[in-house]
Each structure stands twice: as structure tokens, then as C-alpha cells.
Amino acid sequence: MKFKTLIALIFIATVVKVNSQAQENTDLYRVLMAKDSLLFEVGFNQCNLPQIEKLTMDDIEFYHDKDGITKSRKKFIASIKNNLCSTGSNVLKRVLNKGSVAVFPLYRGEELYGAIQNGSHSFGQTQATYSHLWLLEKEEWKLSRVLSYNHYQNQVDLKNNRIALSEAALNQYVGEYEFSPEFVLTIRVKDAQLYGGSQGQEVKINCYEEHKFIDDGQTHDLEFLIDEKGTVTGLLMKGSGMEMTAERK
After folding, report:
1. Interatomic CA distance for residues 68 and 144, integer angstroms
2. Among 65, 89, 145, 212, who pairs with 133 as Cys (CB 3.0-4.6 Å)?
3. pLDDT, averaged across the chain
4. Which helix (H) or strand (E) holds 198?
């Protein structure tokens, strides 16, 4: 291959690579980041369902690596309303991982018809990756397809960090903690260990830091809330993709 031809091919490959991803200073990137904020910060985090409806297509499809497939805007919004927003306030806030978003334009010839947005975010202790397919519909960007995958929990390594507490110290946490009328967690002491139970199931929880505990499976992190007098007044629980606060009854 002649040297000039080789240089030309390298130049073309470089241009294709540069142009394949929208840079942060482009209008496309800024527009999709604004849509992302409206979708999650306003729609999801604040349970503003009309905002989510406005940003999604009628035939939206949502693919989740743990919870299956949801098809249609009606079912997609109903799922959010009946689960995370059932009380009108979402306890599971989405936080975008800074610097994780990449945007790739989609063209039909010279016409821009859509874009793929990839990124990662967290919901409490759960991390996940997402891919969104945005399409232009009558000059408005609408979310058409969602892939939500690579879900995993941030875990606390307790191999050498379990703190043994006296029974008197454990007793200060004993009681019932109401996250909702349907979900009350009962904390009790058994065999010098703290246990948490609800709806007939009970797990041992271990202290790893002052007022902080985690279950044996390292899936739920529990922090007991203390007032200025040192009295336990509530419980913050993180895990399984959720972050919830309960008052002590």
C-alpha cells in the first residue's frame, strides 16, 4: 500500500471516530443531557409522572436485567406509579455518575433522526448502566427504548470489621420501625446478636461502625438515627436499589 493511501485511510478513520460521538460542547449533547435531567431529576426523583409521559413515546420498551420487559408508555408509567411512587414520594433517588455519559448521533443520510445515550448511575447502593434510544418526533426528542443492566450492589467488607456490642448496647436499638404502613421492621436481640425481621422473615445484622449495621448477606445497610440526647429515633436503610427512612414507633 502506498504511503499516501495509508495516510488517507488513517485520516478517514480518525474523522469517523471523532464524529461518531457527540462532544460535550455540541447542541445534541446538551439537549440530551437536559432531557436526561427532566426525565430523572424532575420525573423520576420527584414522581412527576406527567413529565415522564411527555418525554416518552407511546410504544416505549424498557428492558431490565433483573425485572424483565415493560412495553408501552402506559405500563411503563404505571410501573413507576405503583411501585417507587406509590406514596407520592420516591425514596429511591437516581444520581448520575459524573463523566459517564456518551452520546452517539443517528443519521439517515444527512438527516439526524435519533441518538443513543449511554451512561451509568446509582440508586442508593445500587449501581447500573443504561442505554437510551432517543428519537426525533415532530422536532421533539422522545425516549423510545431503554436498556437498564449491569446492576450490582456497593458492599461493605466486614471480614475484619465486625464490632461486638454488649447486650445493653444492642438493646438501645430494639423496637419497631415503620417505613410504610405495609412495611414495619422489627429489631430484637437474640443470643447477643441483633436481628431484623418483617413479614415472617428475619436476618442477623452486624455492627461495623457506630450505629451502623449490615445484614449477613451484605445487601442492606442500616444506620440508626440518633437525636441530640443520644436516643434512637429512626432508621435509614439502603440496599436492593432502595434508600428508605423509618420512624421508631
Report:
1. 17
2. 145
3. 87
4. strand 193-198
Q: Is 74 helix (H, G, I), strand (E, B) or coil?
A: helix
> What is the per-residue pLDDT across 182-209, written as a single tens digit (0 to 9) for each?
889 999 999 989 999 987 889 999 898 8
How would you class 80 by CB atoms within 10 Å of its CB: exposed for 0-12, middle for 13-18, buried for 19 or more?
A: middle
Q: Please enumerate, as own/partner, the contacts of 71-77 that have beta carbons within 8 Å and a separation of 24 or more.
A: 76/52, 77/49, 77/52, 77/53
- Residue range 143-163, pLDDT digits in tens: 999 999 998 876 655 545 678
pTM above 0.70, yes or no: no
Cβ pair 242, 179 in contact under 8 A: no
Nearest CA to 169 out of 222, 220, 218, 224 is that of 224
Residues 173 and 222: their CA atoms lie apart, in Å, by 11
Closest CA to 189 of 203, 210, 174: 174
Gap between the Cα atoms of 90 and 123, Å rounded: 11
Question: Which grid cell is 170?
Answer: 444492642
